[in-house]
Design a protein that fits this description.
It is built from 5 helices and 13 strands. By secondary structure, the protein is mainly β. It has a 7-stranded mixed sheet. The longest helix has 10 residues.
């Protein structure tokens, strides 16, 4: 009933972020919002409350960082998968839900690590508020003895284990690695071109550099989208949001991204 009302008058409808996308009405702006890495809600905007030319948006709120928003006219086409680069980026959940991974990858000059997995890889550092970054230290097979030796050689005693697209329970794997030492690292268990792969990495999150080679590049602040017009007197407006760093992308309607 609420969705029907949205077609008749300006409205902002708050929904669960995991709502079945097949149920999303056409002609409304769908905005996914994440807070500190967790996607907390989906808001559908209609009428005067919807922004011209915006069909999909991902609003990222993280700590004291300035809010940032990635937006486009529709779901973005995926980019091609390619070889593993020195850097790996994990898109924010709001970007994944909004299916704007392809646009994000193109803006970074990156490529997908695997056609079906939401990891972007680049040859150089490209800090962005829309993804968490990692510098790849070593590529390894997903074999406990090999992983154990590699971690011991680097004195890694604090290990963050991430997995995507691979059937491994990190809680069961951790004790088998016999971690010892004062160094820390991230172990990413995933697929590269369909092959099960372990990537030993270090975090490169904004604004903290990853080694001395990282040069900070903050997102460019862009003006409002073309086509917007002043509000008429007494016309309804959206609730005021904090000023954001925006990445505005205009795309044609295309295939729904398959990465997850």
């Amino acid at each position: 009933q609420a969705l029907a009302i949205a077609h008749e008058r300006p409205a902002g409808i708050k929904l669960a972020p995991g709502m079945n996308r097949a149920l999303l009405p056409e002609g409304l702006e769908a905005q996914w919002i994440s807070v500190d890495g967790d996607v907390v809600e989906l808001v559908l905007w209609s009428g005067a409350l919807a922004r011209p030319g915006v069909g999909r948006a991902a609003l990222v709120l993280r700590g004291d960082d300035p809010p940032a928003e990635l937006r486009a006219a529709a779901d973005s086409d995926d980019v091609e998968a390619g070889p593993l680069g020195e850097y790996l980026y994990e898109p924010d959940g709001a970007v994944i839900r909004a299916r704007l991974i392809g646009d994000l990858a193109r803006s970074m000059g990156g490529r997908m690590l695997d056609p079906t997995i939401a990891y972007i890889t680049t040859d150089g550092p490209n800090p962005t508020p829309f993804a968490r970054g990692f510098r790849v230290l070593q590529r390894l097979p997903v074999e406990v003895p090999v992983l154990k030796r590699a971690l011991a050689a680097r004195g890694i005693g604090v290990l963050e284990i991430k997995k995507r697209g691979i059937d491994i329970d990190p809680a069961h794997l951790r004790p088998k690695l016999a971690l010892r030492g004062s160094a820390s690292a991230v172990l990413v268990l995933t697929r590269v071109a369909g092959e099960k792969t372990a990537l030993l990495a270090e975090r490169c999150d904004m604004p903290r550099p990853c080694g001395s080679r990282l040069r900070a590049r903050w997102p460019r602040i862009t003006p409002p989208m073309a086509g917007s017009s002043p509000r008429k007197k007494n016309e309804k407006t959206r609730p005021m949001m904090p000023k954001t760093s925006e990445s505005t992308l205009s795309v044609e309607e295309g295939a729904v991204g398959s990465a997850a």
